[in-house]
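ok so I'm stuck.
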Amino acid sequence: MHSAFDRNLGPVPLLDPLSYPGRLLDRAALLDGERLVDVGMGEIDVLLGARRVAPLSGRTPVLAVGSNGAPAQVRYKFAAAGVSCVVPMAPTLVEGVSVGVSAHVSPAGYVAAAPVMGDGGSSTLVLSWLDEAQLAVMDASEGRNYRRVPVPVPVPVSGLDAQMYVSAHGLLARDGVPRAARPQGELISELLAGSAALRGRFGESPESWVRVASADEGARRYAGRVFAEEGWVRESEPYG
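replied:
not stuck anymore, here's the structure
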């Protein structure tokens, strides 16, 4: 018998920016509206069929490096757009992909994650299988700041078929080395400590940063310019 677990999906980073990336999925499950159903990969198509939604073969596997690996964030995006909130999801260890930081500030005010390739790293990332309507919503939510591309390394379960979103702004780096993702409050505190220009616009705390950034697109654009002026931006790897 399948059991629902963790009915509280955790915080939604779009609503609680300092919680970014949210509570990431830690085992294979079917997101089914407001709950997660514990399930093995071999059983997912049976559950999808019972819900009369697209099977795995009719879905695109998408690898998340940030909050799209948090069921609460995924559900919020899809529910707001009025599309199905039934999504197969599974964490998987991916060799050759690390989690870095995009050189932009999101409309919600957080500084989002981005994939880093070619540094010899590996990460446990969440793979979601999205139907056509869900993929269109995800593309729209990421489109201004990310590009969807094929994952250039094999991904367990999905092989070479997986997609991911790469930053259109480049990566935050230190001495040319991409910064590793870290808890949002720590990351913002570090950025503020390193730039008087950022402190002058956003204040001296993660809370003031989020308050200003979420309310002012001009401030978000300003942060991107400061990132470049401080020499903190490294271009993303070229993808086709």
